[in-house]
């Protein structure tokens, strides 16, 4: 009886380990699957056909894989992507995630003036206490690079129209892909006004990687990207 239990436990353990190993994506295999995607997300994964189409290049693997699973299962319905992920195996999705994560991320330039940037930076770094908006950088890192091991997405360099759309979708509770994370992103967006969302989106477009020359202005980001 005891032995059987140990056997069962071991079998379960091996299964979960195998799942982990299996989950590692192969960028070259992902590239081979990416031609159809490039029609909308760009050949470099960072030049969307429309400003509401997100950059995939440089986004972390864990986040990309989760979103593709949601899109495939229609938990995150994207009309334009209907059929795009049909018939793709878990390994195909992992390969696509690895491919896009391996591409260099885009760096954009904010269009707002000093005052707009300062206002957005204050929210990004300190939140808005009276409306219970948390500091975005706690999860998305001071330089907007996200947190790859946790699967928190990179935000910098995204087209502003996409970021605005995403924040509003969370705020209105239309996007619920943060369920595994306790709804933390819906909570974060709840207290933001449209104006603040547009300031944040512009600020995020122009954020620089922490190892960039202007890192001193951003502050030491530790191991965050
Ligand atoms: C016809 C256009 C189109 C094609 C083709 C397309 N996508 Fe998309 N994709 C979109 C749009 C639009 C969104 C964002 C929509 C939204 O959030 O409402 C999106 C979102 C995504 C996201 C979520 C990104 C994020 O930051 O959350 C991933 C991942 C993604 N696409 C991967 C792919 C992959 C992989 C392929 C190819 C197999 C592909 N897409 C093909 C239009 C397209
Ligand atoms: C407690 C952690 C946490 C905080 C604080 C937080 N976020 Fe997020 N954010 C997340 C997670 C997790 C996701 C991914 C959710 C999912 O799986 O779809 C996310 C997703 C996003 C996305 C969508 C990215 C994409 O490519 O679609 C945007 C934009 C965003 N956050 C902006 C912000 C802003 C702006 C703030 C500050 C007002 C903020 N976040 C605060 C954890 C956080």
Distance between the termini: 49 Å
Q: What hetero molecules are in the model?
A: heme C
Strand element count:
0
User: Over the alpha carbons, how many angstroms does the gyration radius reach?
Assistant: 19 Å
Q: What portion of residues belong to β-strands? A: under 5%
Features:
binds heme C, mainly alpha, 2 domains, disordered N terminus, 225 residues, 11 helices, Cytochrome Bc1 Complex, Chain D, domain 2, globular
Word description of this protein:
The chain has 225 residues and is mostly helical. It has two domains: 22-102, Cytochrome c-like domain (Cytochrome Bc1 Complex, Chain D, domain 2); 114-213, Orthogonal Bundle (Cytochrome Bc1 Complex, Chain D, domain 2). The protein is built from eleven helices and no strands. It has helices at 2-23, 27-32, 35-41, 61-72, 90-102, 114-126, 137-140, 160-171, 184-190, 194-205, 215-218. The longest helix has 22 residues, at 2-23. The protein is globular and about 45 Å long. The N and C termini lie far apart (49 Å). The relative contact order is 0.14. The chain binds heme C (2 copies). One heme C is lined by residues 36-37, 39-41, 53-54, 56, 64, 67-68, 78, 80-81, 84-85, 96, 153.
């Amino acid at each position: 009886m005891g032995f059987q239990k140990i056997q069962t436990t071991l079998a379960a353990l091996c299964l979960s380990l195998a799942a982990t190993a299996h989950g590692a994506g192969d960028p070259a295999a992902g590239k081979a699957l990416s031609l159809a995607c490039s029609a909308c997300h760009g050949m470099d994964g960072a030049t969307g056909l429309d400003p509401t189409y997100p950059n995939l290049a440089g986004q972390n693997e864990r986040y990309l894989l989760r979103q593709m699973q949601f899109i495939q299962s229609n938990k995150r319905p994207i009309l334009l992507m209907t059929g795009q992920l049909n018939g793709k195996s878990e390994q195909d999705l992992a390969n696509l995630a690895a491919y896009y994560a391996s591409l260099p991320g885009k760096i954009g330039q904010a269009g707002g003036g000093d005052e707009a940037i300062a206002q957005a930076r204050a929210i990004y770094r300190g939140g808005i206490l009276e409306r219970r908006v948390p500091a975005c950088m706690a999860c998305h890192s001071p330089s907007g690079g996200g947190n790859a091991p946790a699967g928190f997405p990179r935000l910098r360099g995204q087209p502003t129209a996409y970021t605005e759309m995403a924040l509003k979708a969370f705020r209105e509770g239309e996007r619920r892909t943060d369920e595994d994370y306790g709804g933390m992103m819906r909570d974060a967006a709840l207290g933001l006004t449209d104006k603040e969302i547009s300031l944040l989106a512009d600020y995020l477009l122009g954020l620089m990687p922490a190892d960039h020359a202007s890192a001193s202005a951003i502050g030491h980001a530790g191991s965050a990207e």
